[in-house]
Structures are given as structure tokens and as C-alpha cells.
DNA sequence: AAGTGGTCTAGACCACTTG
DNA sequence: AAGTGGTCTAGACCACTTG
């Protein structure tokens, strides 16, 4: 079996939702209807519905039916994922636009965060990440040149800074801050926002074995992006 | 069927792991072994194993077996803190204003999240949390009345819902979503926002041993609140 | 009464890893 | 070759919501 049948059904349903054929809160086919349409047993149709429900894409009510949940891009809070992978794992196309890749004298805040001296040179990259041609995130990143001397020679339209950094300086630690902000004019422009709207801003400082590597400001429109996480405490009680 | 068979098997396995009978990375019974032990079909035993795997409690390898996963590292980004403690630990004064504490017929989305039936009664509380007399967070919370029958009798101007819930139904699991939104008029009013500004909204679903306990929407002005965290990867490599 | 989702059975064939 | 997990079938009974 090249592709599982339940996966094909999920794929089909996701497509219907994406193209808007099945709007939010509309009813989707029942287990029995899907089973007949795809010539599978009810258990297989059920699995497709069930997994989409666990992913937060559908919600179901016994005796009533299954419905499309409100949709948004979602990423995990717990893991630091490469945004390209994240987008592609949703079955969408990823692309990037490199706006800047330069060397700057280090602003005081950045110097302090990266353990550099004020006015020392620091690498800076500015990139827009697109999901299916729609800007999902503006990434402004300062990189410690002592740790990553070749940063400025990379082609960041083909590899994300995150992926490159994780290859040359494996991540050992990260610090996050999450804020809601109203973006400035410049950010609005690059995120194709006609009017300023609430944006999520992640500030992420990453560390490798030898200390602070980079400080990134990741800004995404609130209407297109959210962070999701899952915590499990069952096993933590023991220690 | 009072309690589903797959749930009983999960319960049993969780207990074994919690009491240390099944240490990290040790092998747990196979689908066939569990099916025989509990006199159920393999599909039912499989479901128990599968759900524990999705919860991150087990990991499985085809042809080899199922194993107890490693402890998750803690992330203060998602650390579930009592907001009263959080405010007081900054040396500020905490107070709360109870706006609503009622019983409602359950909306479909809430029912699905809490494992309740549509239109069944659900408890609802609405509270504003103040830091030094300034509103910091609007908390709208739906609570499973089957698990927390006395919720509606509590005095939430003196104890936060989070603290009360953690006392009567210890947290085993939590799911988070973080979004940036523009608040509606009602929210603006209670957060004393003259104009709508970007707000952080945490959606938090909490679980106890017996299932979903509550679903909370926590909304805070972006200018007054942010989430901060620290991730350590040394222990996280598992999959 | 008809349709929905929730649970379960007792089989089946498969791909995979191990001794 | 024996055991594991992965997928699937064609039934069954149930609780629930709706017309």
C-alpha cells in the first residue's frame, strides 16, 4: 500500500477545506458517507475524521455530525522548528525573500544579548517567510560573528537561517519571549498588511555550546499564525 | 459501558509508569499481549497504546515494540503558573474581580474540547485579574461539571480558578495555543483599554487523570503582558 | 425513525526488525 | 521464522440528537 487510504481521505478533506469548498463550521461528510464515497470500511473513514479532529481541524458532536473548525496556521511552542519544515508539513509551499544580509555595528541591546561589545560588528539578516505566496513571518536576526563567521556568505533564499545555524552550531538552549504587538509601517509592508493588525512577536535567543549564537525577532500576523503547545505532567510528578 | 475498555488499559499502563514499575525506555506489553491480558481484541489494545503514544508517554517502533518515553524537560514558557503568584512574585499587589459565575448550555466547540455532550450544562466563570489596580488579564473559563461539581460554589475573589482546580483535580496535562488578537469591545472595557490594542490570547485546555477539566481563554493587553521562557535541549532528544 | 458518532470484535494481509 | 506494529474489513451494539 503506497499511501494509506485514511491518509488519502484526510488529504482530500484538507484540500476541500483549503480551497474553501468547506467553510468554517460547515458540516463535513459523515463516517458512513465517506466510507461509501471512498469505498472503504467505516473504521477507515472514521480514522481520517478522528485524526483531523485531533489536529484541531474538525470538531465532532455525537448524534449531530462533524464540522470544520476555525483555521489558522499553528506551530508548536515546545519545539523549535524550522519554519520551512513547518509549512511543508502542512502540505503548503514554502518560499523566502531575502531583504538584507549585512554587517552592522552592534546596538547596545543586541550586544548585551549576544555577549558582544557595543559597536563591535554583528551580522544581520532580514527575511520574509511565505506560506503559499502569503507572507507568514518577518524574521530579523542578529548573529554572533565570532561563532558563525560564514553566516554572511550563505544563500538564505535556499536555506533558512535556523536550519543553517542548527547545522553549524547545534542548539543547546533557547530563550523565548512571546508578545502581542501592533507592527510598524515597515513590518506591515513586508507582511502585506494593508492596515496594522495584532501580530505575534517571538523574540528568540539561541545558544550553542560556546554561548549565545543569535537573537531573532519573528513577527507574524495574528490572523495567520498561532503557537500551539502540549505539556504532559503525568510523568513529571515522579521526579 | 461505564468506562471504555481502552481507557481502562491506558489507566493501568499509566499507573505502572507512575509507580516506576515500567521505567523510562523499558518495553511495555505488545498489542497482542495486552489484548490477551485484558481479554479484548487487538484493535482495542492497540488504541490504548496509540493514544499513549500520541500523548508522548510511549514511543513505538515497527517490528520492535513499544517503550516508555523519557521525561519531558520543563519549559517555563508554558509553565502553568498561578497568575496571583506571578504578580506577587514581582512585588505587586494582586486582586480579582468576578464578573460571572454561572451554568450554561454547552456550545459545540466547548463540548468537543471538554468531552461533553452538546447542550449539556457547563460551568462558566469570567474574571478580571488586576496587578496593582491595573487589569492584566481577562479569564473566561469553561469547566467540566462532571469532574468539578463544586466549581460554581467557590469564591473566586479569594482564590483563582487555577489554584482551586489544581487543588481538587491535579493537573496531568495541558494544551496551549497562543495568538495575537484585537480585542472586542467587551474585552476592551474590562481591560480598561480606551482603544483596542494588540492582545495576547492564551487558550489553555487542562486535563486531570479522568480527562479534560477546563478550557480557558486568557486575554492580556500586549503592552502589559508577555510570556517568557527558557528551553533546554540537552534532555529533549527522544524521537 | 433515521442518522450521527463511540466502542468493539475477530479476523486479515502487510512491512519491518530480530534471532 | 516468529514477533512486532500498521492498515483494513464487515460486521455489531450503543448513546445521542434531530425531525
From TrEMBL, chains A, B:
Q: Which UniProt keywords apply?
A: DNA-binding, Transcription, Transcription regulation
Give a yes or no for keyword Transcription in this entry.
yes
Q: Which Pfam families match?
A: GntR, UTRA
> Which InterPro entries does the UniProt entry name for this protein?
Bact_HTH_transcr_reg, Chorismate_lyase_/UTRA_dom_sf, DeoR_HTH, His_ut_repres, Tscrpt_reg_HTH_GntR, UTRA, WH-like_DNA-bd_sf, WH_DNA-bd_sf
- Return the Gene3D superfamilies for the record: Chorismate lyase-like (3.40.1410.10), Winged helix-like DNA-binding domain superfamily/Winged helix DNA-binding domain (1.10.10.10)
Q: Which SUPFAM superfamilies match?
A: Chorismate lyase-like, Winged helix' DNA-binding domain
Domain HTH gntR-type: from-to ranges: 3-71
Protein known as: Histidine utilization repressor
Amino acid at each position: 500500500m503506497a499511501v494509506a487510504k485514511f491518509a488519502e481521505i484526510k488529504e482530500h478533506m484538507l484540500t476541500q477545506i483549503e480551497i474553501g469548498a468547506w467553510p468554517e463550521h460547515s458540516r463535513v461528510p459523515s463516517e458512513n458517507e465517506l466510507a461509501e464515497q471512498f469505498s472503504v470500511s467505516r473504521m477507515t473513514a472514521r480514522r481520517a475524521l478522528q485524526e483531523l479532529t485531533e489536529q484541531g481541524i474538525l470538531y465532532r458532536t455525537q448524534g449531530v455530525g462533524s464540522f470544520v473548525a476555525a483555521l489558522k496556521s499553528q506551530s508548536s511552542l515546545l519545539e523549535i522548528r524550522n519554519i520551512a519544515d513547518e509549512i511543508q508539513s502542512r502540505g503548503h509551499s514554502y518560499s523566502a525573500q531575502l531583504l538584507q544580509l549585512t554587517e552592522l555595528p552592534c546596538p547596545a541591546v543586541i550586544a548585551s544579548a549576544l555577549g558582544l561589545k557595543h559597536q563591535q560588528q554583528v551580522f544581520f539578516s532580514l527575511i520574509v517567510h511565505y506560506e503559499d505566496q502569503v507572507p507568514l513571518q518577518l524574521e530579523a536576526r542578529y548573529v554572533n560573528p565570532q561563532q558563525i563567521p560564514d553566516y554572511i556568505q550563505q544563500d538564505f533564499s535556499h536555506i533558512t537561517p535556523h536550519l543553517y545555524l542548527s547545522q553549524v552550531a547545534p542548539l543547546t538552549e533557547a530563550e523565548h519571549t512571546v508578545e502581542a504587538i501592533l507592527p510598524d509601517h515597515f513590518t506591515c509592508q513586508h507582511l502585506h498588511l494593508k492596515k496594522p493588525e495584532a501580530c505575534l512577536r517571538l523574540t528568540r535567543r539561541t545558544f550553542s555550546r560556546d554561548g549565545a549564537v543569535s537573537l531573532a525577532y519573528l513577527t507574524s500576523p495574528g490572523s495567520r499564525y498561532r503557537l500551539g503547545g502540549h505539556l504532559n505532567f503525568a510523568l513529571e510528578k515522579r521526579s
